[in-house]
């Protein structure tokens, strides 16, 4: 066979296998270019104009988010219900240990970087950050709210709201915070943690029921499969959706030069932390335990990474992440659909890095 035909077949095979990944990366790059082109055409964009630009991207984001809850519940129940308790317990312990180790690494890395770079010393304090409304709360209240949300009194309410405790500022700084009056409320937002706990316990219960619970396990397995098929349909709109989401985010920034002047060290610290954690720490852990090349695994996740970059939401990216793991990295669907919904809820290494850097930024400014 001529060499030229071989090259054509290789290229054709690559695009047949990785077409969606290539389109997702193209969507990110096109969105960045589109956003800066629009800024070059017109410097100041009103809020309404930005909404018009983001409209198609928001539709894509809505289609992804509507799949999250049924996918999380169905995936967890079917995955745990189809495994014996010993296997599911072993997977759960390993996953929890992994989440704790990576979160600790993220916090430790964040502390090291802020000591070295000292974010906040390179510019003035950003007024936008100063204007953010911070909820008055104590550490014990935060921990108790976490436990309360794990055990929601109403499963339907948990799909819409989550419990939150506040302490009321008495107007006198001399009074210790733990003596402030307390108030509680249900805040709008899905209580994903409570739903995960409910689905996990239900899966364990169905697993213990054996043949009696098999029909319900099959129902949730069928629902999970249906959600993945819907995800495959939605995913093909991701390149277009990501273009308009990123373009809208770029237009929302009023002045990049001023923003970078005020937050330059902060940006550098956050990006350095994400780069080191994502491309050194996590691949090193992967290599130690699997003895295989981590970057091939990461390349197969490019589609999910590109979507996460455009949507800025790990939960919204969850359906695509599951699809990449199962279809491209060959992960058992019982493992991916058990571990990923829990990980998207409690394993937030990026947030741990960001909070560490943000607190240090306030300290040094």
Task: List the secondary-structure elements in sequence, H or E.
Answer: HHHHHHHEEHHHHHHHHH
Helix content: over 70%
- Subunit arrangement of the protein: single chain
DSSP helical segment count: 16
Rg over CA atoms: 23 Å
Class by alpha and beta content:
mainly alpha
Low-confidence stretches: 125-132
Annotation, overall tally of beta strands: 2
Measured by DSSP, the beta-strand proportion falls in: under 5%
Please state the overall shape, judged from the principal axes of the Cα atoms: globular
Outline the biggest β-sheet: 2 strands, antiparallel
> Average pLDDT value?
81
Q: Tell me the strand order in the biggest sheet.
A: 1-2
- Could you give the distance between the termini? 66 Å
Explained architecture:
It is a single chain. The protein has 365 residues and is mainly α. It is built from 16 helices and two strands. Strands 1-2 form a two-stranded antiparallel ribbon. Helix 8 packs across helix 9. The longest helix has 39 residues. The radius of gyration is 23 Å and the shape is globular. The termini are far apart.
């Amino acid at each position: 066979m001529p060499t030229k035909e071989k090259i054509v077949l290789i290229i054709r095979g690559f695009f047949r296998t990785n077409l969606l990944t290539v389109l997702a990366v193209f969507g990110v790059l096109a969105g960045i270019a589109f956003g800066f082109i629009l800024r070059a055409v017109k410097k100041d964009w009103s809020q309404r104009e930005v909404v018009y630009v983001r409209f198609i991207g928001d539709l894509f984001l809505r289609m992804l988010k509507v799949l999250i809850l049924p996918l999380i519940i169905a995936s967890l129940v079917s995955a745990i219900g189809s495994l014996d308790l010993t296997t599911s317990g072993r997977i759960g312990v390993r996953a929890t240990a992994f989440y704790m180790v990576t979160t600790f690494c993220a916090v430790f890395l964040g502390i090291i970087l802020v000591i070295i770079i000292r974010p906040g010393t390179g510019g003035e304090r950003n007024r936008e950050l100063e204007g953010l409304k911070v909820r008055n709360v104590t550490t014990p209240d935060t921990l108790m709210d976490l436990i309360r949300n794990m055990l929601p009194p109403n499963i339907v309410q948990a799909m819409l709201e989550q419990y939150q405790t506040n302490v009321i500022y008495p107007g006198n700084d001399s009074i210790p915070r733990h003596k402030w009056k307390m108030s509680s409320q249900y805040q709008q937002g899905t209580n994903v943690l409570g739903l995960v706990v409910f689905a996990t316990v239900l899966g364990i219960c169905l697993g213990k029921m054996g043949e009696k619970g098999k029909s319900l396990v099959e129902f949730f397995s069928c629902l999970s499969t249906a959600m993945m098929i819907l995800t495959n349909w939605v995913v093909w709109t991701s390149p277009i959706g990501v273009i308009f989401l990123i373009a809208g985010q770029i237009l929302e920034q009023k002045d990049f030069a001023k923003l970078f002047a005020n937050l330059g060290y902060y940006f550098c610290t956050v990006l350095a932390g994400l780069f080191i954690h994502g491309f050194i720490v996590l691949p090193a852990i992967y290599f130690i335990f699997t003895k295989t090349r981590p970057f091939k695994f990461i390349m197969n996740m490019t589609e999910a990474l590109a979507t996460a970059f455009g949507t800025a939401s790990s939960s919204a990216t969850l359906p695509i992440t599951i699809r990449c793991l199962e279809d491209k990295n060959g992960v058992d669907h019982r493992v991916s659909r058990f571990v990923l919904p829990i990980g998207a809820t409690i394993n937030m290494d990026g947030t741990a890095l960001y909070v560490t850097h943000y607190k240090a930024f306030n300290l040094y400014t």
